[in-house]
Design brief:
Elements: H1 8-29, H2 34-39, E1 49-52, E2 55-58, H3 61-95, H4 98-102, H5 108-163, H6 171-184, H7 188-216, H8 224-245, H9 252-259, H10 264-271, H11 278-306, H12 316-324
Antiparallel strand pairs: 1-2
Helix pairs in contact: 3-5, 3-7, 3-8, 3-10, 5-7, 7-10, 7-11, 8-10, 9-10, 11-12
C-alpha cells in the first residue's frame, strides 16, 4: 500500500523482484540447490557477421541503430529550427514593410528562393563544422586509446615475462577494440553524403512551405492554424521510425516511409546504416527532388500574393485563391 499512486516503473520493478523471489522459493521447495544454478550462469555474446561481395564484415546492429537515430534526430530538429527561421524572416520583412521595397527590384520567387538558400547554407555550414569537429575528436581519441592500450599491454607482457607468468587480454580490452573495429567498418563518406543530401533537400522542401506560411500571416501567432499540417508528418515519422523502422528496416512500412518525400529524410536515415538497395535509395532521392520542385512551385504562387496582403486573416480557402491567381 502507498499514500500516493505509484508510478508504472515502480510497480514493474516490484513485480520483477517478487517474481524472482517466488521463482527461488519454488526451486527450493523442489529440492534444487539455487547456489549451483547461480554459479553455473554464464553470459553469452553474439558477434554478428554480414556476408558481402567483399567477404565477411562486422555487422554491429547497435552501432547501426545509433548512427541511424542520431542522423534522423539531427534532420528532424534542423527541419524545425531552420524552417522556422525562414518563416520568421518572411514575417519580419512583411510586418516592417521592407518587402515592398525589395519586391520592386526582384521577383517574389527569387526573393523566396534567396531566403531559403541563405538560411540553408548557414545550417549546412554548421553541420559541416560539427562533422569535422566530431571526426577530429573521434580520430584523435581513438588513436590515443589504441596507443595507450598498446603501451599498457606491452608493459604487462614484459612484466609477466620477467615473472614467468602468462598474460591474457581482458574482456574490456576486447570490447573496446571491437567497438573501434566496428567504427572502422562503417562507410563514413557514403553515410555522410546521404545525410547531407537528405538534410539539404528535406530542408528545401519544408522551408518553402514555411516561407509560404510566413507570407500568408501578419504575426507569428497567426501561424498556429497552419503549423499542425506541416509538423505532423515530421513528428509522426520520427516516432514511428525510432519505434518500428529501426527494429524492422526491411518492412513495407519502412519502405513507404522512406520514399514519400515528406517522410523520407527521417525514415531513410534510419535505414541507411542497415543497408538499403541502390534502387530504393535512387527512387527515394528522385521523389524527394521532384517533391521539392513541386512544393516550391506551389509555395511560390502563394508567396507572390501573400507578401503584399495586410490586415486580412488568411484561411485555407484564401490560400487556394492565391494559388489560382494568374500572373
Amino acid at each position: 500500500m502507498s499514500q500516493r499512486k505509484p508510478s508504472v516503473s515502480s510497480i514493474s520493478e516490484i513485480e520483477s523482484q517478487l517474481n524472482a523471489i517466488n521463482h527461488v522459493q519454488q526451486l527450493l521447495s523442489a529440492g534444487i540447490d539455487t547456489g549451483i544454478l547461480n554459479s553455473n550462469k554464464s553470459q553469452l555474446q553474439v558477434n554478428a557477421r554480414q556476408l558481402t561481395e567483399a567477404g565477411e564484415e562486422d555487422a554491429s546492429s547497435w552501432l547501426a541503430s545509433g548512427i541511424g537515430f542520431v542522423s534522423a534526430f539531427l534532420i528532424y530538429m534542423s527541419l524545425f529550427i531552420y524552417g522556422v527561421q525562414v518563416m520568421r524572416g518572411v514575417i519580419e520583412e512583411k510586418t516592417n514593410r521592407i518587402i515592398e521595397v525589395i519586391i520592386s527590384s526582384v521577383k517574389p520567387f527569387q526573393l523566396m528562393l534567396g531566403k531559403i538558400i541563405g538560411v540553408g547554407l548557414v545550417g549546412l555550414t554548421q553541420f559541416l563544422l560539427w562533422i569535422i569537429l566530431c571526426l577530429s575528436l573521434a580520430g584523435g581519441g581513438g588513436s590515443l586509446l589504441l596507443k595507450n592500450k598498446s603501451f599498457d599491454k606491452q608493459v604487462k607482457i614484459e612484466t609477466a615475462n620477467q615473472q614467468g607468468q602468462q598474460i591474457h587480454q581482458t574482456g574490456v580490452d576486447n570490447q573496446g577494440l571491437a567497438i573501434l573495429h566496428s567504427l572502422d567498418s562503417v562507410p563514413l563518406f557514403y553515410t555522410l553524403s546521404i545525410f547531407l543530401f537528405y538534410f539539404l533537400f528535406g530542408y528545401l522542401l519544408y522551408s518553402s512551405i514555411f516561407a509560404a506560411v510566413g507570407s500568408a500571416v501578419d504575426s507569428e501567432t497567426e501561424t498556429q492554424q497552419f503549423m499542425l499540417p506541416i509538423t505532423m508528418p515530421l513528428i509522426f515519422t520520427f516516432i514511428i521510425s525510432i519505434n518500428l523502422v529501426i527494429n524492422n528496416p526491411e518492412s513495407n512500412l519502412s519502405f513507404w516511409l522512406s520514399v514519400i518525400p515528406f517522410t523520407s529524410p527521417i525514415a531513410m536515415m534510419i535505414r541507411v546504416p542497415f543497408g538499403v538497395p541502390v534502387w530504393e535509395l535512387a527512387l527515394s532521392m528522385s521523389l524527394l527532388v521532384a517533391g521539392f520542385l513541386v512544393i516550391t512551385w506551389v509555395a511560390a504562387r502563394i508567396y507572390r500574393v501573400g507578401i503584399l496582403m495586410y490586415g486580412k486573416k488568411a484561411s485555407y480557402r484564401e490560400l487556394l485563391k492565391w494559388f489560382m491567381y494568374k500572373e
